[in-house]
Amino acid sequence: MNESLMLKPVDDGTVRRRIAQRLTDHIVSGGFAPGQKLTEQQLASALQVSRGPLREAVRELAEMGLLVSIPYRGLFVRSISRQDLEELYSLRTKLESFAFELLWDRRTPEALDDLGRRHATLKKTIEAGDDSLQAIEQELFLHNWCFELCGHNLLRRTWQGMQPHVNFYFSLHQKAHDRKGPLRDSHDVYVSLAQGDNLQAMLEHLKDHMRQGLARTIAELSTDLPEA
């Protein structure tokens, strides 16, 4: 069997949800290549599930944009383009900046300590260097902090809807760097400013951090990126 299809079987429970989560994890961790063609038969065999709940899960992932179903051609893992990256980074910048504007006067010592603990946990995982998926999940958990604290439910749900895409791009970014997670000190300034007193400096850092991340990702993946 193709190594990329070596998925663990789904056990009892809410089968559709478990299938969707298993496929999402496999996509965002880079288990499938962008643009790779999949078939129901392969997936059902690898996951040891029936076609009914599998189709429901595939439909859910297609609605999220992680899978693409093309009539008369088949099912594909989403590919990426330069425009995809630019849209993701620009929207992330706006959403995260808005979250910080809302949360700035809501920060408490307990909330700031929580951010510090998330950062410390991420650093430990990076230092261990043996679990890229966990590092990506913890990087997302660090960035979740501002949305959890902002007090804006629609903003938080919008961010949650984006997370599979952000997770997917984080995975591509780490594979392009050939490393299992971000650099150990990559969030030091972010966390320091988030715990500080200068909102404007925080917002400027966010714009610069996102802009640099976009430029690096496009440069490293340039040979594989169509324009649109």
Automatic annotation (TrEMBL):
<dbReference type="Pfam" id="PF07729">
    <property type="entry name" value="FCD"/>
</dbReference>
<dbReference type="InterPro" id="IPR011711">
    <property type="entry name" value="GntR_C"/>
</dbReference>
<keyword id="KW-0238">DNA-binding</keyword>
<dbReference type="InterPro" id="IPR008920">
    <property type="entry name" value="TF_FadR/GntR_C"/>
</dbReference>
<keyword id="KW-0805">Transcription regulation</keyword>
<dbReference type="Pfam" id="PF00392">
    <property type="entry name" value="GntR"/>
</dbReference>
<dbReference type="InterPro" id="IPR036388">
    <property type="entry name" value="WH-like_DNA-bd_sf"/>
</dbReference>
<dbReference type="InterPro" id="IPR000524">
    <property type="entry name" value="Tscrpt_reg_HTH_GntR"/>
</dbReference>
<dbReference type="InterPro" id="IPR036390">
    <property type="entry name" value="WH_DNA-bd_sf"/>
</dbReference>
<keyword id="KW-0804">Transcription</keyword>
<protein>
    <submittedName>
        <fullName>GntR family transcriptional regulator</fullName>
    </submittedName>
</protein>
<feature type="domain" description="HTH gntR-type">
    <location>
        <begin position="13"/>
        <end position="80"/>
    </location>
</feature>
